[in-house]
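To: structure subgroup
Subject: Chain for Friday's discussion

All,

I'm putting the inputs and outputs inline so they're searchable in the archive.
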Amino acid sequence: MTEVNKPPRTGGWTKFVTARPRLSLLAALVLTVLAVLAGSGVADRMGAGGWEDPDAESTYATKALEREFPGSQPNLLLLVDAGSATVDDPAVAAEARRLTERLAGEKGVTGVGSYWATDAPALRAKDGHEALIAARITGDEKAMGETLDRLAPTFRGAHGPVEVTIGGPVAVRHEMQTIIQEDLTRAELIALPVTLVLLVMVFGSAVAALLPLGIGIVAILGTNAVLRGLTEFTDVSVFAMNLTTALGLGLAIDYALFIVRRFREELSAGADPSAAVGTTLRTAGRTVLFSALTVAVSLAAMLLFPQYFLRSFAYAGIAVVLLAAAAALILLPAALVLLGERVNAWDLRRLFRRERPAKEGTAWARAATLVMRRAPFFALGTTAVLVLLGLPFLGVKFGTADDRQLPSTAESHVVQQHIRDGFPGSPGGGLEVLARGRAGEAQYAAYKERIAALPDVLRVDGPLVKGDAAYFTVQPKGEAVDDAAQRLVGELRSTDAPFDTKVTGTAAVLVDSKDAIAEQLPWAAAFIAIVTLLLVFLLTGSALIPIQAVVLNALSLTAMFGAVVWVFQDGHLSGPLGFTSPGSIETTLPVLMFCVAFGLSMDYGVFLLSRIKEEYDTTGDHNEAVRHGLQRTGGLITAAAVILAVVMVAIGTSRVTNTKMLGLGIALAVVMDAMIVRSLLVPAVMKLTGRATWWAPGPLRRFHDRFGVSEGGENPPGGAGNCATSHDVPADRNGDGMADASGGIRAIR
């Protein structure tokens, strides 16, 4: 075993990141400035959609109808309010026709129609005081947004005897994009100062507290530049920017906490700054690398889904995770070499209280001892509570993202709510059937009769014929995406016709999206499970621990999924949280939340397992290794989870419901994982499995001896030895270095 005062061997990586620390930081500053320039305006190039499957039947039919029958796919609705008069009043009708003609003459607008031009009952409110002008704005999302910005001031507001408000899908998307950008700025203004205060509480030193923030800012700005580059080649969702901010700050803080704590431990053991950085990179650095890989794997699974909404989060998540890890493993060591003992400077806690005397044992060590003494009780009880919290998810109903994602005061939300409440047959929420092939009037009429005879059909309009193509509009009896409307999609697709038919519309898009997710979900789950099992095995050398990690991680997410349904689908707490419940969960959100939360849970799991493994390699005492691992990382994980939860809650203050759900749901998952699963369930299960926890069959053990890595020891990755040196586990004046006996967060010593 290596002596404490013997300088540790300096590897090539340590030399690389510490040889010229000033040059490294200067290069980072230059790259960050370039990232700011490259990433400027990225939000303006991002979309607010991406929930549909681009290869689905509904997508094909939608694009065909846009080309050939633009009036069939209106995305702009002008709600004309006649006040005390009716929409058939001569003065109202004259003004409405003038507005219709004016809109038809605008550049970038096609397929203009209105109640006054068609007398369609679906475009007239039941009370007769409101009616609609419908049109389609052409172009991509950016072009549509620019056209809407140009048209809105002209058409919005009072026009003689009528008042006009603007709605429709293009208005909803544009307003959502604007609100998300505003909310993201506000979330950053909330999260940054609160995070800085928490970091000062954790580190004690203001200098040390600023380091994680710097790493996070570098990761966020770098990711924005990556996303800006991706928008040149593919669609990217504006929602992904929220994940960039949350993970950029959260993971940078996690990694910096781990590395700075280990660096300060080495300094307190008498190492000079360069030697301390070397040991830190060989120990905590390896753990950070494994943590980043496990998080990236979970996020990469979203690349298997066809919806660009999910793929966008994979782009943003993988980029920000890798950049955060790279900054933590390159820039942070360079800064630590330059700072040396000054990393402990500006201890602001001394302004408020005196140092507490060192105590033998810690709250975490006592907690671990208690949990292992009553392992069956804690294992079964914790599992039962988590399963119970997840039961509401059994009643989940999937839907689409619509105007109800926006605040109730948003103009496009108000318009769509008027349409839902006051117009017959859900205008704009019907189904369109595209027919291709030569057919006569008699064949079209017979097909229309068959559609009208379906039990869930309210009305069939059409056909409108153009060459060898035609389309029918089918209004379901209920809501646009309820169970009956989704059932109607299947009935329409199976209805016999003498020509080729394709069905689209809101319910059809939902059905196709659900099918696409169901098709890819097993592959995504298998990818996450297999790669996670492999990574955890390489870290621990155990055949059982990887299985435990995957199962317990999945179990830790039950509370999040139960809360999502109970709060956001069923509408509990909608008043205090300020959102309108649509009565369903957008189809892609559970997939996104699972991938993100599972990755973050593995982040904390790797921190804990690496320390347990290090102690087990040193002592061979299983129970002591579990107790010691929780003692040394319990406070670290709790502090990291609290800070990440603060960031996610700041994201959760968004006025857009999906973003609110994402932020608050993942905050809950992170807290439950750190404070319940890592503190209670993991030590209880490891106590029950005993020394068998570390068993692996001969071939796997030989594979790990050759390729496995772990925190501790002087061996490079792939070396055979895993024994920690004595200075890898120095005495900690406060036990776990993170929390005092009362469980509160305190400075890392």
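Points worth raising on Friday:
DSSP finds 25 helices and eleven strands in the chain.
Residues 169-203 form the longest helix (35 residues).

D.
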